[in-house]
């Protein structure tokens, strides 16, 4: 079972210090990790069948404090050439941004969207960096 967790403070300065934890793991680690994350979670929701997804994003609330999680299965996120599936990164980055905006009461402004674009860039950068760190730590493990 291989798992790596990377915690980041979300750079939204007027909203305290919400955190984003990016989890990169193998399939075996997923079920165990979901049980840990769900423990004492005030926002419990039905979890879909993990095998259907490369990534999964959700918010955990404990004692009124939100923590955002984004979990990735390395065997479905990296192709045989070792490239990251950017569709999944963009897809999950949107979920991360939406979870954070919703819980902090931020409404997107389509006329003045530059801050949102910078924030999306930061999320995508963190996701890609953390996946690359996982691969490096695990000898560039690629799917068979």
Shape: globular
**Main sheet: which strands, in order across?**
1-2-4-3
Main pleated-sheet profile: 4 strands, mixed
Order of helices and strands: EEHEEHHH
Number of strands: 4
> N-to-C terminal Cα separation, in Å?
16 Å
Uncertain regions spanning at least 5 consecutive residues? none
Number of domains: 1
Beta-strand percentage range: 15-25%
Mean pLDDT: 80
Structural class: alpha+beta
Number of distinct helices: 4
- What's the alpha carbon Rg, rounded to whole Å? 15 Å
Helix content: 40-55%
How would you summarize the topology of this molecule?
Elements: E1 3-9, E2 19-25, H1 27-38, E3 55-62, E4 65-73, H2 74-77, H3 86-104, H4 114-137
Parallel strand pairs: 2-4
Antiparallel strand pairs: 1-2, 3-4
Helix pairs in contact: 3-4
Plain-language structure description:
The protein is α+β, with helices and mostly antiparallel strands. It contains four helices and four strands. It has one domain. A four-stranded mixed sheet has the order 1-2-4-3, with helices on both faces.
Provide a quick synopsis of the model:
With 144 residues, the chain is of the alpha+beta class. It has four helices and four strands, in the order ββαββααα. Strands 1-2-4-3 form a four-stranded mixed sheet, with helices on both faces.
List keywords for this structure.
single chain; 144 residues; alpha+beta; four-stranded mixed beta sheet
